[in-house]
Each structure stands twice: as C-alpha cells, then as structure tokens.
Amino acid sequence: MKKVYAFLATGFEEVEALAPVDVLRRGGVDIQTVSITGQREVEGAHGVTILADLLLDECPFDDADLLMLPGGMPGAQHLDSCLPLQQALVQHHRKGKLVAAICAAPMVLGHLGLLQGRRATCYPGFQSHLTGAEYTAELVTVDDNIITGEGPAASLPYAYTLLATLTNDATANQVAEGMMYKHLMAVR
Predict the structure, then answer these.
(1) Cis peptide bond prior to 60, omega within 30° of 0
(2) How many other C-beta atoms lie within 10 A of the C-beta of residue 132?
(3) What end-to-end distance do the CA atoms of the chain give, in Å?
(4) What are the φ and ψ backbone dihedral angles of 156, each rounded to 5 degrees?
(5) Which of 142, 116, 18 is nearest to 71 (CA)?
(6) I need a labelling partner for 81 at 20 to 30 A (CA). Which of 68, 109, 112, 166 fits?
C-alpha cells in the first residue's frame, strides 16, 4: 500500500488538504495528516479545525511515497518556514520520490530549488516564487516526480492525479465515478 503524508499548518486551505485526503483514502492509499504546529488540532484558513493523525516529530518520512503540501495563507508561509519539513522535502526529492503542492504551497518547493528547470503551476500571483520553473497556469501540472495544483478549484483534479500516479488510472477513474466527478465534468 502506498504511503502519503499531508502536512498541515495553521491557516491551511481546507479543501486543498481534505479533498486529496478523502480521494486517496477512497482509492486505498494510506494517507496521514501531519501537524507542524506541535499540536494535533490545526485550524484552517476558514476556521475549520482538523485533528491531525500525527505530529511532525512523530512522522517517519522514510516510508513515504509522497509528501503533500496544501496551500492557503498563512498556512503555506508556515510550511515554507518549517526547517524539519524543508529538510524532509529535499531528501525525499533527492531520492526521486513524489512531492506535491497546491495553491500557494508550490512556493515552498520553489524556495528550496526543487522546481529548477521544471514545469509547475500555483495560485495566480505566486508564480514569482516558483524559482527556476516554467509557470503553466494549468489546473494540475505533472513534471516527473513533482505534481502541482493551481488552487481550491483544482483540488479534485489534483487529488485524482495524485491517486492515478500512486495507483493507476483505473483506480482513479473508479473513485472519480463513485464520487460523481465524471458527471460534473459532463455538465460543463
């Protein structure tokens, strides 16, 4: 079973954290939420409080297939200033493992130099933080082992992309169909 850690900081964007958690769990992925605040309870950008599965100092990192960063402000800024998380992201990336970030959180990857020579997307206005990257303005951009999402509206496409990458297209499609996502896309 694939293993994912989603990192939560005060002020995280709730939908960008919880939609991927929900989709990945439905798809059979072991995803755990990790608080970087020192407390299990983490308040999101819109006042929703989440009880994280782990604290940062309890997170083993080594068993992860994917490290995931939700956006939101000031959540993404808190992630960006968390030294243990920065070190884990760099090590994980060096091993060629998956790293994902959405909305404002790709700035963390940009500041660490992980986007150098890559294609990436983010919330409009944060592209200056994607150091060395080609900004795509896409809902979701996949470049080798880095997956980025644009913002709240991209939460489900981003989540299904993560699920397909970790499992396969059939699993992602099955979960999307069960959640009526395919119906939503047909209405457009």
Answers:
(1) no
(2) 12
(3) 34
(4) -75, -45
(5) 18
(6) 166
Q: pLDDT tens digits, the chain, 188 residues: what are they?
A: 999 999 999 999 999 999 999 999 999 999 999 999 999 999 999 999 999 999 999 999 999 999 999 999 999 999 999 999 999 999 999 999 999 999 999 999 999 999 999 999 999 999 999 999 999 999 999 999 999 999 999 999 999 999 999 999 999 999 999 999 977 665 54
Q: Parallel, antiparallel, or unpaired for β 98-102 and 134-135?
A: unpaired
Alpha carbons 116 and 1: distance in angstroms, whole number: 31
The answer to whether residues 55 and 34 touch, using CB atoms and an 8 Å cutoff, is yes
Q: Position 181: which residue type?
A: Y
DSSP notation for 129-142: GSTTPEE---SEEE
Do 108 and 83 touch, CB atoms closer than 8 A?
no
Joined tokens for residue 115 = 């986007």
Name the amino acid, one letter, at 175. V
Bridge partners of 135, per DSSP, are 120
